[in-house]
Design brief:
Length: 271
Amino acid sequence: MTRHPLTRLRVLARREATTVLTTRAFGLLVVALAVLAAGLVSVSGAAASGYLPAVVDLLPALELLVPLLAFTVGYRALLDDRRRGELAVLSTFPVSRATVVASVLVGRGVALTAGIVAALLPTMGLVWFAGGPTTQLVATHSSTDSAVLFLRLLSSTTLFGLAALSVAVAVSAVAGGTRSAAATLVALWVALTAVVDLGLVEALDTLGSEAVLAVLALSPAGAYRGIVLQTVVDVATAGSIRAAAPLASAVGLCCWVVGGAGVATYAIWRI
């Protein structure tokens, strides 16, 4: 095993990315997501209407399907390594546990990002080919319906996927088996999305709308939804809506990425 920390990280991350990218199930899920996204905007008529309608139609579906893809990539990552004894073997080399967790997140994060891009770019191309005369590739002013809006959706979706992946890797580090990992992950995600969203609705009168928009960043799905609505829909409609605090939402998603890595690193410390 090479001695330089960055070299070790790169080698291990490449192994993780290759493992995911060569998995048949991952490829099938990416193709299924691409077909569903393109089919959704085609059936709804959003493909012929422009990027903004396509984003609005895709948002609810991506909020559900992107975490599913991320969970598939990450929920067994450290669990399988632990059960096969690979973590124990790595502990005999000069490789820190933080490096092991970072390599899993980086490698599988690269694979997940590639999958999200591969799944959504065909829809962007479909909107460009099928769109009307107002659909443009380059924005001429802030409210233009251009591909920039779709690229913002793509970048926000990628960050959302990485947050979900980090949560999945953290669960994989503490779970005792595959079934318990899947059950724990589903229960945790439901608590982080539905329960938080419903709680904020109930607390609207108490906290006030501005505070609720900031607290919404605590939920990964709420933060993702808020970023898309604020940086895509609000911008394209010349600031006619107020759906989130974009900075708080972005920081919230980044905190989930870092927090998941921290939990995973602490959990494998005993190995």
